[in-house]
Amino acid sequence: MHLQLDQARNGPLNWRDDVAVSAADPGTEGPLVLGCVDCRGSLTFVGPDFLLEARLRYRQRLYCGRCLTAYEEEVELPLAFVVTGRAEESPPAEDGTGAHELEPEDLSTLVAAEGEIDLAVLVREQVELNVPMKPICDPGCRGLCPQCGANREQEACTCGSEQFDPRWSGLEAIRERLGGDLNQDNRPRTTRQPT
Predict the structure, then answer these.
(1) pTM of structure
(2) Is 97 left (phi over 0), alpha (psi -120 to 50) or beta?
């Protein structure tokens, strides 16, 4: 679906569409989005630009970053963009490449140089940007055992729960040197009295 900017000049253009998104889940062969993305929104002329407000609803499949199990979740994503029909010329970079750093307001601005917005491209981009960097199936997920690799959410791990990390050996040496000089809070006892 394409939104024509001219259709919103005399009043808000309300729209609804189901967009098929072919985005793949990074690192897997399966689809990220299950089904279509339900899109609802409006395009309003606010002179000289337009305001695009939308709400995306879809179901996505992710893989937990702790236990590597696939899980699904419902997503409702509100969007708001300023749409301009003109591309602003950016000053050339100091190195002459024409590249420049984006400002925060640039991230919420769409340029519709041809006078229309391709919703399929916009929806796909927003779905991919909304994927968490480290998806977690549940905040209490215990993940995989670092020793045997067992999924601690599905089976009991036979490894000892108290594993020593060699990176802490320097602190362990200090603890042994202090020996019995630790109180029950594991803090060194002080002999100086507060004044």
Answers:
(1) 0.69
(2) alpha
